[in-house]
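Justification of resources, computational component.

The compute hours requested in this renewal are based largely on the per-chain cost of generating structure records like the one below. Each record pairs the submitted sequence with a full structure-token output. That output is archived, and it is also reused by downstream analysis tasks.
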Amino acid sequence: MVVSVKTTSVEAKVHHSVRKWSGVIWFLIEVNLIGGTIFGFPALFKILPQYGIYNDTNNCAIPLINRTEAEGKDSSCEGHQTRQYQNALTLGIILFEIPSVIIGPLIDRFGCRFVKLIAIIFHIIGWLALAFVAPGRDSLLYVHTNFSSLAGIIVLLTAYTSSDYFSKSRAFVSALFAGACTSATMWYSIFQILNDADKITLQQLSYIWMSFSVLMLISSFLYLDCRFPILNLPYRFDTKFEKKQDHSVIITGEDQSSNGSEIDNMKCFPSEYIGTLTGVMWTAVGVITTVQYVLVQLTNNVSLSWRAWLIVLSLVILMSCHLVQLWWKYVKEFRKKSVAIMKK
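The structure output for this chain reads:
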């Protein structure tokens, strides 16, 4: 009887392991297709004018008298279009980065599945807007960048949070998702190549990308959990490492009572707040990214561009201080281990 119970337990663990890693592969595909695509949006700057997007007659159509005025008109029209595309891009990047501080706590409160179902709605709205964008409906371009960015960051954050289903492989899984997010920037460039070759239209590509919401819906129920008792997963976040750390803290607590900070440093971040942590960290990255876009405006006047370089230098010093802090903590821990080994 005992043997059969143990065998069943082992089989369940193997089954869960297969399901977890298949979920990682699925999320890698999702993040690659949906998360981070906004950063490749400039590739559409060559395509959108072909569809007459923001070819506003009030800004472009002026009476032509000679060739010089015609050239001025073309330059004015292109400048107006590019500014609109850049504004849509900037707003999309801001909405990809900054809302993470809100999305993270929502994940902790309602679960990854619930938040991802909201992302599906955003995803459909965003790509449907790009499919319908046309002269007279130019503002749908902003709808596309805004909602597709919100969907992308939710897909990315829920994928990052799912790495907590693993104990020993969390860092590896998170690194895979980071790489998938970076590679997602290539899709708009592929759109440009296919469009220039007359293989497919932007509208058709938009419908194809909108159909990926089906992948998101399936993964929401197969590989993610929620706080409501509906079709929940048979496994939970892996907290073995946290319990081990807490246990070691209790055992050594009396010897280290003179230095409470050492005990706190030994504890890892609780799994129930992993969404909040991820959201706060991603928002911090977003703030820095947004600052970088603002710096571009400071370089318009070359004589005053030193202000932008001063801000960049401040950010570099800040990150360098954090790097030094990490290395200092590593050296201290290494010395402690060396002393403990020598005492033995």
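The longest helix spans residues 306-343. Residues 1-11, 61-73, 245-267 have pLDDT under 50 and may be disordered.
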